[in-house]
Amino acid sequence: MKKEIIRTEDAVGKVLAHDITRIVKGEFKGSLFKKGHVIRPEDVDRLLDVGKSNIYVLELGDSEIHEDEAGIRLGEALKGSGVYTKPPKESRVNLFAEYDGVLKIDVDALQEVNDQPLVICATLPNNTPVKKDQMVAGTKVIPLVVEEKDILAAEDACRKAGQVIEVKPYHKKKVGCVITGSEVFYNRIPDGFAPVITEKVEHYGSEILEITYAPDDLDIITEKILDLKAKGADVIFTTGGMSVDPDDLTPSAIRKSGADIVIYGASALPGAMFMMAYLGDIPILGVPACGMFFRTTVVDLLLPRIFADERITKRDITSLGAGGLCMQCETCVWPKCTFGK
């Protein structure tokens, strides 16, 4: 890269070598164009208006590229399905969600990109639920000019990964729910679970197929689970009866239904007594009592991924430990917080 003087009229497409200052007495003093700005045809008159008949520009070497081009190339390489970019702003290219869904980051590939000299990309945490047009990442290079080989290395890392940053959309599902507990079944106390589950399901654009009730009876709870499967439930909630008391039979009923148990007990608080299971391809969520009293629990960390058609593994749940402690803020702002991150 070298600096040379050139006539302003001949500078279109060239890179400014320093800031251009504009001064209007009593009104304005500041930067008209920043160093690194690529001069456009419409910029020529503005430069002449501030007395710049000749300007310093940068001539890039054959192996060098400008920061704007580098940002554009990085954005294109990093974005996967459900992600779009906008043009550079101060050399930074931002990535946005095309629709509501779950943000998925290939953390290893992202690390390889950030290992390249003078290249950076920062994202929201992996598995964050995001809204349409929400910013999910930003990428740029640090200096005004970089060696193209470093961008090529970052692009190659992205190519090998397939998709470094993507958004998986939610899918509409029919959801069944078995609310257990003799005290609710026999109307000794009002049910508090149905409105909670309904709100969570509808938030992801899905619908309640049926909410049914069962006493603390192993066979009845099991029968209710299998009945929801027969009626076409895509997801099944079972609520209550998840602890170790004699009348808490929900985990045993889930097992008796023939479901494969992923895990009983989650490394997240609230939600430690949670159970995750699959009856064939149907996820079954055993929701402990805390799900009725706390706005956000381990269930909320997993639901976005379930509605995005991910199959939850034991490791998905055990890995929640670091970041799995809810701070129980007076006003819940999840997912804009540390819980599950």
Task: Provide structural commentary.
This protein is 28% helix and 29% strand. With 341 residues, it is an alpha+beta fold. Strands 16-15-17-20-19-18 form a 6-stranded mixed beta sheet, sandwiched between helices. It has a 4-stranded antiparallel beta sheet with strand order 7-8-12-10. Strand 3 and strand 4 (28-33) form a beta hairpin. Helix 2 (67-78) packs parallel to helix 4 (148-161) and helix 3 packs antiparallel against helix 4. It starts with a strand and ends in a 23-residue tail after the last helix.
Defining key terms:
341 residues; 28% helix; elongated
Q: How are the SSEs placed, and which strands pair?
A:
Layout: E1 2-7, E2 15-16, E3 20-24, E4 28-33, H1 43-49, E5 54-59, E6 64-66, H2 67-78, E7 83-85, E8 93-97, E9 101-105, H3 107-114, E10 119-123, E11 129-130, E12 135-141, E13 145-147, H4 148-161, E14 165-169, E15 174-180, H5 182-185, H6 193-203, E16 207-214, H7 218-230, E17 235-239, H8 250-256, E18 260-264, E19 275-279, E20 282-287, H9 290-293, H10 298-307, H11 314-318
Parallel strand pairs: 15-16, 15-17, 17-20
Antiparallel strand pairs: 1-5, 2-5, 3-4, 6-13, 7-8, 8-12, 9-11, 9-14, 10-12, 18-19, 19-20
Helix pairs in contact: 2-4, 3-4, 7-8
